[in-house]
Design a protein that fits this description.
By secondary structure, the chain is of the alpha/beta class. It has a single domain (2-39, 46-342), classed as TIM Barrel, CATH 3.20.20. The protein is 41% helix and 16% strand. The protein contains 12 helices and 13 strands. The strands form 3 sheets. Strands 3-4-7-8-9-10-12-13 form an 8-stranded parallel barrel, surrounded by 4 helices. The protein has a 3-stranded antiparallel beta sheet with strand order 5-6-11, with no helix packed on it. Strand 8, helix 7 (186-207) and strand 9 form a beta-alpha-beta unit. Helix 7 runs parallel beside helix 8 (223-236). The longest helix has 22 residues, at 186-207.
């Protein structure tokens, strides 16, 4: 059934197909249809960041930027759903076209630019959904906010989503907002995360609960840079790290239609690069901070490889576009097999 749907959707432009899919999943979720018609993955509970996840396979941010299809997406079998990236103010993102499929490589290039309707709209969707599962909310800065004032945007979003999020992801790694990736390094990263950690402590007291903070990093780093980031994460007391966002590399798609488009590349070509980042992080962190792995999972075995590399949870996005809900089930099964072998 999904293969038929995909063939029809792939006849549309990528962004039109994306919007139609979110609309359909939003409507289906309100009616409770996905759980009735989609075979659910096996139960594989795991506790990470102090949160009980029904299974370790989640949806990465970017698919549902405004929280329009939380129930529909969850009903497909995800153990957790991450929405956003959301910014304080609505913004249109970059000019269209800005989303491109590379089917031969099971890849996507996007330069969306944090297009979203703003944090207040997202929170209205979250409240209407009354979702009881694990919900991550991914926050970013507006394109017009100078990098030196980025912390103000992150703080505003953090304060608004804190009471409703299971965890909050700080996105400093999208390649599509000018200057954003500069926040991943050195004093810029340390100062930003220290500011957010201080506010997290205050919000924990205010709300009577700790909402974990995760930082999402790019795959385009040297091993030394990854290790430096890990040290800052430990020093500032981050609760998790997501590895990785999209890449600016075009390795594996050279010469393909749309390969020269600007933006972040996701899907199968980023798999090994992202898994390498997970391995380096795992060694540097020594189990003190959990890793959520994302990037290039198009088969169940790829999810298991991320766990073997040191991740506690995985997220899918581009692979889900190409494979559908079957990828969730296959990933849970493969991770379960790895867990059995370890025991």
């Amino acid at each position: 059934m999904y293969n038929l749907s995909r063939r029809l959707l792939f006849k549309l432009s990528p962004e039109t197909a994306h919007e139609l899919t979110i609309d359909m999943l939003g409507a289906a979720g309100r009616l409770g249809l996905p759980r009735r018609v989609v075979k659910q993955p096996a139960s594989l509970p795991v506790r990470v960041m102090g949160i009980e996840f029904p299974n370790p396979v989640g949806l990465a941010a970017g698919l549902d930027k405004n929280g329009d299809a939380i129930l529909g997406l969850s009903g497909l079998g995800f153990g957790f759903v991450e929405i956003g990236t959301v910014t304080p103010r609505p913004q249109p993102g970059n000019p269209k076209p800005r989303l491109f499929r590379l089917p031969a490589a099971e890849a996507v290039i996007n330069r969306m630019g944090f297009n979203n309707l703003g944090v207040d709209h997202l929170m209205s969707r979250v409240h209407n959904a009354k979702f009881s599962g694990v919900l991550g909310i991914n926050i970013g800065k507006n394109a017009t906010t100078p990098v030196e004032h980025a912390a103000d945007d992150y703080l505003l979003c953090m304060e608004k989503v804190y009471g409703s999020a299971s965890y909050i992801t700080v996105n400093v790694s999208s390649p599509n907002t000018p200057g954003l990736r500069s926040l991943q390094f050195g004093d810029s990263l340390k100062n930003l995360l220290s500011t957010l950690r201080q506010r997290q402590e205050e919000l924990t007291a205010l709300h009577g609960k700790l909402v974990p903070l995760a930082i999402k990093i790019a795959p385009d780093m040297s091993d030394e840079e990854i290790t430096d980031v890990a040290k800052i994460l430990l020093e500032t007391g981050m609760n998790a790290v997501i590895a990785t966002n999209t890449t600016v590399s075009r390795a594996g798609v050279e010469g393909m239609l749309h390969a020269d488009e600007a933006g972040g590349l996701s899907g199968a070509p980023v798999r090994e690069q992202s898994t390498h980042v997970v391995r380096v992080l795992a060694e540097a962190l020594g189990g003190r901070i959990p890793i959520i792995a994302a990037g290039g999972i198009t088969e169940g075995e790829h999810a298991a490889q991320k766990i073997e590399a040191g991740a506690s949870l995985v997220q899918v996005y581009s692979g889900f576009i190409y494979k559908g809900p079957e990828l969730i089930r296959a990933s849970v099964d493969a991770i379960a097999a790895v867990s059995r072998n370890k025991n």
